[in-house]
UniProtKB/TrEMBL annotation:
GO MF term list: oxidoreductase activity
Signal sequence region: none
Name of protein: NAD(P)-binding protein
Residue ranges of domain NmrA-like in the record: 45-253
Annotated keywords: NADP, Oxidoreductase
Length: 309
């Protein structure tokens, strides 16, 4: 089986899985020499390349997994066109998240943030691609909770840096609201299981969640395991409404804290503070496949800080 992974340098794309066969979501450096001998990497400008440029790369490929983000998301359609031409059997559009509709106070309409909208508009054509509707190709769409181990997101996931002398968690709305969280390594392991069991993942949207906890609980756990001060800064829900009207009103202390737009960060936190960042139990598919570890947030934090009190 040959797998093509698009976007292996991102926070999702470089997540690792300990089982060596197969290992589609990992960086080249984490492979054994034997695995590296079977790995081929290619650099390509997906935004500006043509479908014809992609055909030689996807020839003899069985599965395409997209972990693209940003402007490259728009390239998924031509990647799938090339994949259909070369006979790829399974396509994984880039998802790995949860979308929400923001409803302004007192309004009957809803709004979708451009970050979520870009995922939606890039995914829909993939799911309705002629190769899918004809049965030539199948798809698997993988969704998740909030990815809680993103070291690049210093405001989003401050606990990923165990060297800080203290921690501040910025919360919008109710700090006791439950939130679905997902660890990227377990998400990668879940994807591996969907590959191992193609009959269970064929033409399916599957959601993987590690834990469902609140920021108040995370603050308590972080304080307990790090032995350091953990401060909670709780913004009222009105901050979300204000920022959605005026992006410039994002509080100064949470600006430029990561790779996502500041207003998107506020929106996600606001949806979480409303208690809407939790999927119904019937829409979580952890139990469909065996062999997937589930790192709880508590165990993750304990391991990160060495169990110190």
């Amino acid at each position: 089986m040959k797998i093509a992974l698009l976007g292996p340098t991102g926070q999702v794309g470089q997540s690792s899985h300990p089982d060596p066969n197969p290992q589609p979501l990992t960086t080249a450096e984490s492979f054994t020499p034997e695995q590296q001998a079977r790995l081929t990497t290619k650099s390509l400008d997906l935004v500006n390349c043509s479908t014809d440029d992609l055909i030689p790369i996807l020839t003899n490929i069985d599965i395409v997994i997209s972990a693209l983000n940003g402007p490259a998301l728009a390239a998924q359609s031509k990647v799938q066109d090339a994949a259909a031409t070369t006979g790829v059997k399974r396509f994984y559009p880039s998802e790995y998240g949860m979308h929400h509709v923001y409803q302004p106070p007192g309004e009957e309409y809803g709004l979708i943030h451009p970050t979520w909208m870009s995922k939606i508009t890039s995914t829909e054509p993939c799911l309705h691609h002629p190769s899918i509707t004809s049965g030539q190709m199948t798809y698997t769409l993988i969704c998740s909770g909030d990815l809680y181990n993103q070291p690049r997101e210093t405001t989003w996931c401050p606990w990923t840096n165990p060297t800080l002398s203290s921690y501040t968690l910025y919360i919008v709305g109710n700090p006791d609201a439950k939130i679905d969280f997902t660890h990227t390594d377990d998400l990668a392991a879940f994807i591996v299981e969907t590959i191992r069991h193609p009959e269970l993942s064929e033409n399916k949207e599957l959601n993987f969640v590690n834990d469902t906890v609140s920021y108040a609980e995370i603050a308590d756990m972080l304080e307990r395991f790090s032995g350091r001060e953990v401060k909670k800064v709780v913004y009222p829900m009105e901050v979300l409404d204000q920022v959605m009207r005026d992006k410039g009103s994002v509080p100064e202390e949470v600006r430029a804290g990561g790779s996502f737009a500041d207003d998107f960060w506020i929106l996600v936190r606001g949806m979480q503070g409303q208690g809407s960042f939790v999927r119904p139990k019937g829409m979580v598919h952890n139990g469909v496949f065996g062999g997937v570890g589930v790192k709880r947030v508590e165990g993750y934090l304990e391991g990160l800080f060495g169990g110190c009190k």
